[in-house]
Amino acid sequence: MIRFYFHPTPNPAKVALLLEETGLPYETIPVDTSKGEQHLPSFRAINPNGKVPAIVDTDGPGGREARVFDSTAILLYLAEKTGQFLGASEDRPQLLSWLLFIASGLGPFSGQAVHFQFAAPDGLDYALNRYRREAERHYQVLDDHLAGRSYIVGETYTIADISAWGWLDRASRVLKEANDPLAPFPNLKRLFETVDARPAVARARAVGQDHAFKQVRDEEAKRALFPSNYPPVS
């Protein structure tokens, strides 16, 4: 059984999609990041970095419990556990390259673009412009790569496409464009729509909907989400 620590944000969404694609049995455990539950000692014992997603596999290698954090690590772990969505063996170098491109570039710059456009105080135009333009640059790199390709790696759907889907699903916020945000990136738009049409996506979107996550961005939420902006409480 997989215990899946979840909040409805892009990185956990990737893991939800892979779990639904593989058919692995799992239990969703909500972690309300706006209430600071990611900082509780019980969760830090699973992910010392205090972020979702994380999983605990009670039937890990050698039959022992395995704890895995970071969405890319989880995607690789679950794909290798099931032997699914890894693509052809000869495409492994490209799979790793594009997974880490998303993990170290597309995802973080998208997240920072959202932060500086919607959460940061006014007057930080340099940071806003940098992260937004870098997000757009990463979109363009991936769009160029997808010209003439159906998927990111090889000829089949892999965890690289699942990883990209998690953040492309938030393109309207990343690019601050509500109307057809992926229109300037036609190959990326095609990939997103291909993945988004898969039956497992609807099931992944339903994960956590039975839990009332905190929606208000009050002082408690800001301290929980952006603790480095606040001095430690003595």
From TrEMBL:
Q: Which InterPro entries has this protein been placed in?
A: Glutathione-S-Trfase_C-like (IPR010987), Glutathione-S-Trfase_C_sf (IPR036282), Glutathione_S-Trfase (IPR040079), Glutathione_S-Trfase_N (IPR004045), Thioredoxin-like_sf (IPR036249)
Query: Which UniProt keyword terms apply here?
Result: Transferase
Q: GST C-terminal domain spans which residues?
A: 88-225
- Cite the GO molecular-function annotations of the record: transferase activity
Keyword Transferase in the entry? The reply is yes
Q: Name one Pfam family in it.
A: GST_N_2
Sequence ranges assigned to domain GST N-terminal in this UniProt record: 1-86
Highest taxon in the source lineage: Bacteria
- Is Cell inner membrane among the key words of this record? no
Output this protein's name: Glutathione S-transferase
